[in-house]
Design brief:
It is built from 6 helices and 9 strands; from the N terminus they run ααβαβαββαβββαββ. It is of the alpha/beta class. The chain is globular and about 45 Å long.
């Protein structure tokens, strides 16, 4: 049986990804997406007390969210180096409301309906297709009714499978991930912000197109 991509990332590729990108962790796209997420959810500030970021790296974005919402945050990421660096910074800055741990999207270390906001921070495109529904189900399991899911990921005009350029045997999967939630009838797409990796505006190049999509979990889901 082939090794899952999540295992490959936990066993080393996550660290390699972090080391390649650690100098650009506060990219234009990241900063813009967090500000848009804050703007969109600021009317619900008093309702957001527990935040989960999946694919958190060192937790820079999670810290910004927790700071604005005055919330507690948990970040998970497959990179041990990223988690160690983030936890060291949290300890240095005495950030007792943010904790980070190694983990993957398909198994979340949380109780049912314990989160008010679940943020997929550019990670769904790297999940095995056998794990994508597990990740969707796990996010739904831990999110309270009336909570929010935010997805930052590629936003293609159709599905695609591509070779991951940094390691043989890994693929990236571009898809409309918000549709996995809205198709259930339990989630409503409340906002979408289009951009690219390099700019804060819509990308005409389908390959470069990125979006932050924010979904609301209906109270009367059945």
């Amino acid at each position: 049986m082939p090794i899952k991509q999540s295992q490959i990332f936990v066993e080393g590729e996550g660290d390699s990804y972090f080391q390649r990108n650690q100098n650009s962790m506060e990219s234009t796209t990241d900063q813009y997406s967090i500000e848009k997420l804050i703007d969109s959810l600021s009317p619900f500030k008093s309702n957001i007390q527990q935040i989960l970021e999946i694919g958190c790296s060192t937790g820079i974005k999670l810290h910004r969210l927790c700071e604005f919402f005055d919330a507690n945050g948990l970040g998970i990421d497959p990179s041990r180096k990223a988690i160690e660096a983030g936890n060291q910074e949290n300890k240095k800055e005495a950030r007792e409301n943010v904790r980070l741990q190694v983990g993957t999207a398909d198994i979340l270390p949380l109780e049912d309906q314990s989160m008010d906001l679940v943020f997929f921070g550019f990670c769904l495109y790297l999940l095995d297709r056998s794990d994508i529904f597990k990740a969707i189900a796990e996010a739904d399991r831990v999110l309270k009714p009336g909570g929010f899911i935010a997805i930052l990921d590629f936003d293609p005009n159709g599905r695609s499978k591509n070779h991951y350029s940094h390691k043989a045997g890994i693929y990236s999967y571009k898809n409309a991930y918000a549709d996995f939630f809205t198709a259930s009838g339990h989630y409503y797409l409340m906002s979408k912000h289009s951009m690219s990796h390099a700019n804060t505006f819509f990308a005409s190049d389908n390959y470069e197109r990125v979006a932050l999509q924010i979904l609301y979990k209906e109270h009367d889901a059945y």
